[in-house]
Amino acid sequence: MGTYAVTGAASGMGLATTRRLRTEGHTVIGVDLRDVEVVADLSTRAGRHRAAAEVVERAGGRLDGAVMAAGLGGVAGRERLILEVNHLGVVELLEAWRPALAGAGGAQVVVIGSNSTTLTPMIPGKAVEALLAGEVDEAARRLARFRGRAATFAYATSKTAVTRWVRRTAVTSGWAGAGIRLNVLAPGVVSTPLLDEQLAGGERKAAEGLALPVGERGRPDDVAEVVTFLLLQPAARFFCGSVLFYDGGSDAWFRPDDWPTSGGLRQVVSYLRRSRAWTRQQRR
Ligand code: NAI
């Protein structure tokens, strides 16, 4: 039986995943603001640092996997917290846990992203890059221009940044090369307290306009089932830097032909350059 860290373990998808893993006999070290083993505020550097260290200590220096589900929805007034929790609350913890994950020999990590990454038009690329560079002040400054919609864009920015971080990081020698699989599950509308709060906070119209071809919202227990598959099934090990949309068809409805795309001439140059780099790396 394995030992797993789950952030956001007190509610919604994190709680459902925690229960599911425990039912299967695994040990879960929950991280959240309340009702868990490691109570920590992931919106502060000190809280993230403490959470990271305490989890490793409780796990005895070895983690079989992690589920990064702590997150804040796009509610006005929380823009900075959204950036800190949804992006740094994933990246800083996973970087600190990397040795413990590598030590398990075959660890699986699932980051909960969002389909807001593709369904929010005009996410500011410079804010995403700033966040990826760890410049939260700069990202917040760029988002302030959106005024009344700043929280919505902060949310989409945070999820885009964390998704790109996963795609950049998952394929590196320190992660894929160390046997760690790092993937994103990108849900659409799932019935959780976060969604209830967003609906109560003026997002009802946007939520109702979001096409849901399957005809019903997602359920946390079903998300937990999918996450558990990614964590526990050997067949899932071929997923690496993947972004799995779990959204009842919303992304496909709005953007059926936007991707996959093969890119243009610049893509050819980049492909050849990276292909050469890969070959060189293999010869070393
Ligand atoms: P939830 O609100 O039920 O659970 C989120 C958990 O994160 C809560 O227990 C909360 O206390 C914790 N958290 C928030 N701020 C924290 C902080 N500063 N420090 C430590 N823990 C903190 O929400 P839900 O829906 O289960 O969300 C899970 C993930 O799924 C989030 O990352 C969310 O952005 C994402 N998501 C949710 C969707 C939905 O429709 N519910 C859709 C797409 C993505």
Task: Kindly describe this structure.
With 284 residues, the protein is α/β, with parallel strands linked by helices. Helix content is 52%, strand content 12%. It has 11 helices and 7 strands. The chain has helices spanning 12-23, 45-58, 79-104, 116-119, 125-132, 136-144, 150-170, 193-208, 220-232, 250-254, 265-283; strands at 3-7, 27-32, 38-39, 65-68, 108-112, 181-187, 243-246. Strands 3-2-1-4-5-6-7 form a 7-stranded parallel β-sheet, sandwiched between helices. Strand 1 (3-7), helix 1 and strand 2 (27-32) form a beta-alpha-beta unit. The protein is globular, with a radius of gyration of 19 Å. The mean pLDDT is 96. 1,4-dihydronicotinamide adenine dinucleotide binds at residues 8, 10-14, 32-33, 41-43, 69-72, 85-86, 112, 114, 187, 189-190, 192-195.
List the defining traits of the structure above.
single chain, 284 residues, alpha/beta, seven-stranded parallel β-sheet, 11 helices, 7 strands, 52% helix, globular, binds 1,4-dihydronicotinamide adenine dinucleotide
Summarize the structure in short.
Helices cover 52% and strands 12% of the residues.
Helix/strand/pairing class, anyone? Answer: alpha/beta
Gyration radius, in Å:
19 Å
Distance between the termini: 36 Å
Major beta-sheet overview = 7 strands, parallel
* Overall residue-averaged pLDDT value: 96
Estimate percent helicity.
40-55%
Shape: globular
**Low-pLDDT segments:** none
DSSP, total strands: 7
Count helical runs: 11
Describe the strand arrangement of the main beta sheet, using strand numbers. Answer: 3-2-1-4-5-6-7
